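Aim 2, interim progress: modelling of the acetyl coenzyme *A-bound target.
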Amino acid sequence: MGDQAKLSAGDQTADFAVLKGSVGPDVVDIRKLYADTGMFTFDPGFTSTASCESALTYIDGEEGVLLHRGYPIGQLAESSSFMEVSYLLLNGELPSQQEMTDFNYTISRHTMVHEQLLQFYKGFRRDAHPMAVMCGVVGALSAFYHDSTDISDPEHRRISSHRLIAKMPTIAAAAYKFAIGQPFLYPDNSLSYTGNFLRMTFGVPAEEYELHPAVERAMDRIFILHADHEQNASTSTVRLAGSSGANPFACIAAGIACLWGPAHGGANEAALNMLREIGTPDKIPHYIERAKDKDDPFRLMGFGHRVYKNYDPRATVMQSTVREVLDALKVDDPLFETALQLEEIALNDDYFAEKKLFPNVDFYSGIILSAIGFPTTMFTVLFALARTVGWVAQWNEMISDPGQKIGRPRQLYTGPVQRDYVPLEKR
Ligand code: ACO
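Predicted structure of the complex, ligand included:
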């Protein structure tokens, strides 16, 4: 028999199995807690609760480690491609050359969207936030691809996964084009996944689009850095939505909605806005004081993380990528200097050290994306594009799990106990 955990409350005692993962903290299996004791656990924000079993991504927040299927994120960002990482996340192993060629081919054959779907954009106001457009258009995919929504059929799941990954760049680029009033571009399947996205975003039908290799590489690396991140809020949203049997397009739309929030995917937009507000390094001390002030809602955006209590390994890659992109594009962005100094000052400040607040992936990404030419409103869209593969892989893992159940948390009820209705005239 493996390790056991004992819980005593009042005159009750119950034993629970302790489960071990391949690495990481052990987990107390409390599935029988309610049946055995009539009690629930209380864990708002899931700070101590493992909501599922997963073999996709591992994070050691104390050490600043992020692994996809065992491979360190730094190695993947340096040597792999977003398509290869996508294959790895979906299938569990790195592809052979033939498997890579086949996967690239399959994804490139799904890049077009149903022509009628493009009509949807015209229903939005031009000044709509592109994330609002993404929620609507991705949700609408389920109305177009009925032939891949039977979630009990592995082949349907495979096709819908490929469709989502392949169509996301087309949908995201169209959201941008609609906002600026330019015509949509159709995909060009002779380009890489990322090159095709850049062309659909920044190209125009009137002339040839010239891909900048350094930009294509940086963008691909940003996609790798955002591909998956364990059971974060949007991934948990996708799993929860999917646990009821909802189709994958609807589930990913739910993930996009969750990602939009400033505490999650919206943070890179907020981080760049913050750097612009700070402006020059001489203003940094003022903003550091504001971030430390309990009565001021201001937080240092791009700093802090629920899981990382050390440097986010993605921020390390992001910081070196900023230099590469600014050099390649010959852009001198003074905000990079402000960001570097802000990081240094914060890391040497007791408040941030005690609370273990370090730069996260969003701290530097805004500077790169802005140098490439993206408006801040597109930042979270890019995150959604890249995270789609993680969402889809996690959703597939959940559906394939024979022990999967509908997600249905319990609560600690603190409202009124039963009372009788009083007619309006008697109140
Ligand atoms: N600036 C100043 N203080 C902070 C910050 C920050 N960025 N982040 C956390 N703190 C403080 C909190 O005020 C709190 O202080 P207290 O203990 O005195 O009350 C303490 O640190 C712990 O913070 P919590 O919000 O309780 O930690 P939690 O794990 O719930 O939040 C979060 C993590 C939401 C990411 C938070 O650090 C934050 O708001 N950061 C800024 C937003 C951001 O960059 N989000 C991106 C996350 S990465 C991603 O989604 C890809």
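The first strand starts at residue 4 and ends at 9. Residues 119 and 227 are 29 Å apart (CA to CA).
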